[in-house]
């Protein structure tokens, strides 16, 4: 990182700018930090380009493209403002070096590292191509290295495959030495162009030199089109796949998926990078810990305080503490479609005004949930909590408006979710939406809600890739949910931690920063292990874990693989501490794992309304309405309605609109029955801890509270 230049800003929106990460012809890349301590890389566009209407259109397209890519090996966009005087976008910050820097500092990568790199980058490109896009600038400088894999960055010249409006013929776009023959000739490009560039990158990683040499740009372009690649130093086991990628004719190259299959690595126990590069990553990560302190901040509500406790008026508002750079104590560390949609409109308990009274203005909320698909239990809990909150709101005489509800069942399907979101967004009466139930469904809705300026509040999704100007995450992100686990391990003096993921994107988010945080203490040995859900070798992989005699086993994958893992762990004779992430807080885990679930410690962002004192009134009201105990996430959905209603009241307007709500809701603090709520103004992320411990006891989740010292 370099110091800021005289023309660089000190702040961009809600981010404090700490230094320069790089610069190019179109702008600069700056290191920024949010009020909550999150580090981001901010691409700031130069003013002369921002004044060009065609460039601004391309930049809008770039942001939309980057948000559509779903892969663990691409850096996600977390925030952007395409309409600012100097437009910008922020992506998650990866402290590791680029491939170009690593090769320059430590030399070419070993054959195994290059093969693993090829498989991971091919997986990223396969996701890019599946999304209907071409990256068009795959080069060593756009590949960042991390201990858990590379990250493909900079979609600045990426284009959708069907985009013909913004593409010009006879224009060379890309980086000489790593672009394809069709790019060098200014011809149309498709996915095979990225595969050619990938072959160039792998050749560079293995040899430290460009396969078509260096020198004047014109000479490199000529050699790319007419000369064979120089692959003398490429290891024999890699040469066939690299040669196939570098075929001159696009139709003769393999697909990204085929490259990935050809680069499969059988030995997954060892780290993928040589020690010289891992040391470089560690050094750069350590520098991030020496950055200046975070500015003191306070998140204030937009209106005078009012009671917002439970149905009985319990509790009084208090602003939650600001989120800081998180440090583990005592051995913990920095953690750092098409298809029909079911609609239910305006039941009797959702319309305002009692008989004989003057009608109040009616403001409509949307609920998008999976009510009939694989996550229907969670979706039903959302609906019950929302309907209870709406009914209670409408029963009070002192509310200046009534609430109505439109419910969309998207069945947890991404295509249906997008269709449902567009229908909800098209209804001008709707001022905010709560949903969706699943991660894929939530991601599919963002473009529709963003275009409509319609606030989306999620009580279940913690994927940082989904954050944008209209998104509110009413729970900690997937990575931040593991912070209390680090505290727990430190308080109990547990080291030699077996950290298990299942190769899912969720598993990567949960385990990556957690592993780096634990390693950062210098006192904890992290033993990573991948156990794919449903894999035939689960037993063998689990026995490998147990053979290392870990002090604790932490599972960070999705629920689908946990039951089998738990059974295999019991069968292997392990009896030590077993800890699982949010995904394990699911009745299906209890049913599928049976006796093997007993004793597991589970962290969850859902409170237990039957055990938490703040939710007792809610639990009584829920039982009275539904004749059953409230399930997980019903209280959080209930809180979501009350939070939005509080924001609408604070506007003090006869009929506030969705556009009135967007700038206000992120500045609001709310004391809910489940937990306190506040949000990072720049990206809608949750501010606070908001995580609870449960222990599986006699086949049930026993609530232990939020304090790791009492677990």
From TrEMBL:
The keyword Nucleotide-binding applies. Residues 15-273 form the Protein kinase domain. GO terms for molecular function: kinase activity. It comes from the Bacteria. Residues 294-323 are annotated as: Disordered. ATP binds at residue 43. Keywords: ATP-binding, Kinase, Nucleotide-binding, Signal, Transferase. Belongs to the leucine-binding protein family. This is Bifunctional serine/threonine-protein kinase/ABC transporter substrate-binding protein.
